Amino acid sequence: MTTARETVLGRIRDALALAPAADGAPVPRAYRTGRTLPDEERLALFTDRLVDYKAQVHPCTADRAAEVIAEVLRERGAERIGVPAGLDPQWLSAHDGDVQQDSADIPAPRLDALDGVVTASAVSCAETGTIFLDGSPDQGRRALSLVPDLHVCVVDLSTVEVGVPEAVARLVPERPTTLISGPSATSDIELERVEGVHGPRTLAVVIRTDA
């Protein structure tokens, strides 16, 4: 009688026999690359995908970013805001509440006391409505964008690529990458949508259209 161990090992041997030889030959990856769209079309596609994910979208010019961010925070009743150490302080110049600069010394559970967080972003994908954070000083550590219930993420339209291959090509592989596609959501056993389980319940994206 064949044991489970023998079955598993046999399948591994079969798979290795079909695999290409480990001689350093490059693996072909014929990804579509180089796709572009005019700014207006890229913005429309990105916005459509974000809205489909139930994210709030606020396009604005760069000189109105602080005002729009303050409006979003005010509408959500968010007064105590966390920010990464490298965030542009001008972005919160119109906010009249408390601003707490994050650091690795602050335990992650304490971030739950914040009403929200404001971060920048590294790059985004219009086709999938995905925002990439890479832990840069203006984006902060992963916990900062996952623990508070509200995440206001500032995206420059110039960093929005059409597809995933174009977006990934702009990332630094060695940096910790967080992918965000709308507010945190999952489904229970009855397929009922539940939000805020693994991250922010509300995602507000402020898109600077001329930056």
Describe what is shown at a glance.
This protein has 211 residues and is of the alpha/beta class.
Provide key terms for this protein.
211 residues; alpha/beta; six-stranded parallel beta sheet; 24% helix; 23% strand; globular
What does this protein structure show overall?
The chain is of the alpha/beta class and 211 residues long. The strands form 3 sheets. The protein has a 6-stranded parallel sheet, sandwiched between helices. A 4-stranded mixed sheet has the order 8-5-6-9. A hairpin with a 5-residue loop joins strand 10 and strand 11. It has 5 helices and 12 strands. The longest helix has 15 residues.
Q: What's the topology here?
A:
Layout lengths: L3 H15 L20 H14 L3 E5 L4 H11 L4 E4 L14 E4 L14 E4 L3 E3 L4 E4 L8 H5 L3 E7 L3 E2 L2 H5 L9 E3 L4 E3 L5 E3 L6 E7 L3
Parallel strand pairs: 1-12, 2-3, 2-4, 4-7, 5-8, 7-12
Antiparallel strand pairs: 5-6, 6-9, 10-11
**Mean pLDDT across residues:** 91
C-alpha Rg (nearest Å)? 21 Å
* Multimeric status of the protein: single chain
Shape: globular
Termini separation comes to: 68 Å
Structural class, please?
A: alpha/beta
